[in-house]
Amino acid sequence: MQATIGLPRSLLYHKYHVLWTSFFEAIEVETVTSPPSNRAILERGVELAVDETCVPLKVFLGHVDSLRGRADYVLVPRIVTLAKGETACVKFLGAFDIARNAIPDVPLIEYNVDVAAGIRERDELCRVGRVFERNGRRVRRAYDHAKREQQRHAAEVSAEQMAIAERDGVKVLVVGHAYNLYDELLGRPIRETLARQGVEVLCSELADMEQARTLARRVSADIPWTYNKELLGALELYRERVDGVIFLVTFPCGPDSLMTELCMRRVKGLPAITIVLDELQGEAGLNTRIESFVDLIRARGRAGSGVAGGGAL
Amino acid sequence: MSVDLSRVSGARRVSFPHMGNYSIPVKTLAAELDCEIVEPPRMTRRTLELGARHSPEFVCIPFKYNLGNYIEALEAGANLLIQAGGGCRFGYYGEVQEAILRDLGYEFGMVRLVGGFSVREHYRDFKAVNPRLNVRRALQAYRVAIRQTRALDRVEDHVRRNVAFEAEEGAHDRVHAAFLAELDGTRDLRGIAALEERTLGELAAIPAERPRDLLRVGVVGELYVLMEPFSNHFVERELAKRGVEVHRFVTVSAMIDHAGRKKHAYLDRMIEHADPYLRYHIGADGTESVAMTHKLMREGFDGVLHLKPFGCMPEVNAMSALQRLSREHTFPVLFISYDAQTSETGLRTRLDAFCDMLRMSKDRRTGAGADDAPAALASQGGR
Known about the structure:
- The structure holds 2 protein chains of 2 kinds.
- Chain A has a 4-stranded parallel beta sheet with strand order 2-1-3-4, with helices on both faces. In chain A, strands 6-5-7-8 form a 4-stranded parallel beta sheet, with helices on both faces.
- By secondary structure, chain A is α/β, with parallel strands linked by helices.
- Helix content of chain A is 52%, strand content 15%.
- Chain A is globular.
- By secondary structure, chain B is α/β, with parallel strands linked by helices.
- Chain B folds into 3 domains: 2-133, 3-Layer(aba) Sandwich (Rossmann fold), CATH 3.40.50; 145-210; 213-383, Rossmann fold.
- In chain B, 51% of the residues lie in helices and 11% in strands.
- In chain B, the strands form 2 sheets. A 5-stranded mixed beta sheet of chain B has the order 1-5-4-2-3, sandwiched between helices. Chain B has a 4-stranded parallel beta sheet with strand order 7-6-8-9, sandwiched between helices.
- In chain B, helix 1 links the parallel strand 2 (13-15) and strand 3 (36-37).
- Chain A binds chain B through residues 49-54, 78, 80, 89-91, 93-94, 96-98, 100-102, 104, 112, 220-224, 251-255, 257-258, 260-262, 265-266, 276, and chain B through 2, 55-60, 63, 88-89, 91-96, 99-100, 103, 112, 114, 277-284, 286, 310-311, 313-314, 316-321, 323-324, 337, 380-381.
């Protein structure tokens, strides 16, 4: 029987799904991905999690739980550092142990990335691969292939974004973590509402980390979180090309609580709002906010440069 | 590392946020900057209100207290602020606080000691402020500050364990207050050692009535709310009022012991203690919270209080492990979260219930010998 590995469609899946699926495909391990987030998954996650856990981590626990009995293992990355002098959000240090304690009857398999301590993604993912495939050379080749696929995909996404950014019309940049932006329950309704308003939507996905780091420095000197540097980098990259920014934050995100505050204070002259999502989100209130934000941008656009400042809503 | 002095005009007046009584050793270090020290006013409700008003909504509570301290220090004439760095969001406080204070219109310089606890980097930052500083002077200041810290932690540890049982109310507090007054200003190693010894002797001589079956409770969690009694609503003292011997392991002395080269070995040891509940380090003090709780349970403690600021990620990470530990061993753990709305009354009621539960459970154990301790109070949030 073919071995199977479960991929929870949440958190880092939205950043690494191409890497993971191409890797396991290349070593002939069947991947079972949990369905797009739905109410039941979220509710299960809320039950399993400590109250104060951030929403995406609750969603994640719901996804892990939904893979019960459907795969030999469920893959959970543990990310500590992706570069020297930076860190990942603390939840990525804890996600594996949290899932293990909250859902003890689902077998998990982790890979650990701590570049500052010399623990690299390639070695660790290959270690996971070796559980299924004894031929080490084949596993390493599979990883290298998958990494190239991931980079190709990232470049495509980035080029697509740039193409949108160059188009005419009203454009809004949504700054938020991939696991919120691309989540069926969290980010998708917002992107759709914007699209319904005839607005071009850019997401803060950036291919080139080097570029993101350099650009992020313009907004913040000290910010330590790699994934937040990407968000700041995207903000810097697109800010001249968009008409407004929406910061999409989930309650009570630690890194974003500080980053958004800093951005709101430093990014002047561009209309911006912060939308905080929690697990109780009602769509009506949200739509009203987004619609009035778009109205404001349009009004500002019509008035041309006559309306100075703009500022935050 | 970041030092910005361009906006300081006139004589420099340096200030820093409060944490417990550590302002004493911090002043010893700050004295090496050769400028006037403006100690922020004592923490009050106003400190928190000021801080909360100008802080991001769901940032953790130490940020709000720090910001409140800064505003009150700036009002008192400070124009140079120091912020340290740490292993979580704390490491990023400085830059955002600086932006907030500038938008409020204050003129000041800021020394942001980011990158954790590194004497070498601190020296570089301090040197940028005070070019007359030399390595020998700085090292001596560090030695004295560390010695003061150790004396402080030893004395306060003794008070924590014994104040519940003093025969005459206020006896420990009197000795403690006199000790603090004298420590503040004693800046020679021998003088500090003598003061420490004398104080510990005076404390030991206080008449006490220790019951044989007293309750022992460990306090674990996030370091700021553990070490700043105002921010935890004096929870240790509240426990003592209920006849509890209180143990706490997170102190600045302990942090110094486990910093630098020893950090990795220490973390490995903590992971061992936390087995089987953790396989990896879960960030900042979270691993230690799980390890210490597991250790205290095995040492026969009656219960553990887990304190954290609302939304503190490393400690939220720890909670899933702690809840499982508590469930599997019916070991009582009370979880308390602090934010700007924490109510004192609610906290007291929860402590009453917790201590009553520990008492009943202990009496039943020592009386009938049956071990049917009630299920753990795995309740969440303290608001």
